[in-house]
TrEMBL record:
Pfam families reported for this sequence: ABC_tran
Protein name per the record: ABC transporter ATP-binding protein
InterPro entries: ABC_transporter-like_ATP-bd, ABC_transporter-like_CS, BCAA_Transport_ATP-bd_LivF, P-loop_NTPase
Protein family: Belongs to the ABC transporter superfamily.
Length: 237
């Protein structure tokens, strides 16, 4: 198999005296959707923040496209094309939809801003309808569209989506996962970090299950769905 686009080995990370991640190994190849699954508090967001260089790793390595980014500055990580759409959306509520999107290309792909704006508006027509509206007045689903659109403005080589379905209605969740599948079909590599196991495994090629800061299961989506313990713990079947 070709070299992984993202390769994580022995990753340990945490906050102050608390170690959250305890030796994580994970690979993601170009063009893949890989799901990182786990309940609230399992360490998913800490993993995302450490890979994105927002939290400094205590041990282990993170390589992206062959380069060691374990100790890189987060701006350099973004410049390489590893783009993180954070949990809770983290939009700028007092800026317009357009201004939020334009900020996505501040570090990377600024020269293609106009073309990428057109692409985002084609994906999310509702954002085009609200281009001048303050982002804080959007619905939860529209804010999630805006957060993903902002990430796409940077022309990501890998898009990390942290709990994108959190707080959305079942109908919007269905729409969101359809969009993620469409982005994957266009060739985008995606790390989908979710509590929604069934929906994630329906679109991911492979998955890892994180519990208490360690990987407990990994394999293809089919293999994980065939694991009795996983089905009982996460799917209730």
């Amino acid at each position: 198999m070709t070299e992984a686009l993202l390769s994580v080995r022995g990753l340990r990370s945490g906050y102050g005296p608390v170690e959250v991640l305890r030796g994580i190994d994970l690979d993601l190849h170009a063009g893949e959707i890989v799901a990182l699954l786990g309940s609230n508090g399992a360490g998913k967001t800490t993993f995302n923040q450490t890979v994105s260089a927002l939290v400094i790793a205590r041990a282990g390595t993170v390589h992206f496209d062959g380069a060691d980014i374990t100790r890189a500055h987060y701006r350099d990580v973004v410049a390489r094309g590893l783009i993180h759409v954070p949990e809770g959306r983290k939009i700028f509520p007092n800026l317009s939809v357009r201004e939020n999107l334009e900020l996505g290309s501040f570090t990377r792909a600024r020269a293609n801003r106009a073309v990428n704006l057109e692409r985002v508006f084609a994906l999310f027509p509702r954002l085009l309808e609200r281009t001048g509206q303050h982002a804080g007045t959007l619905s939860g689903g529209e804010q999630q569209m805006l957060a993903i659109g902002r990430g796409l403005m940077a022309e990501p080589r890998l898009l990390i989506l942290d709990e994108p379905s959190l707080g959305l209605s079942p109908l919007l969740v269905e729409e969101l996962f359809g969009l993620i599948a469409d982005l994957h079909r266009q060739g985008l590599a995606i790390l989908l970090v979710e509590q929604n196991v069934a929906q994630s495994l329906a679109i991911a090629q492979r998955a890892y299950v994180l519990e208490n800061g360690a990987i407990q299961f990994s394999g293809t989506s089919g293999e994980l769905l065939a694991t009795d313990r996983l089905r009982q713990a996460y799917l209730g079947v």
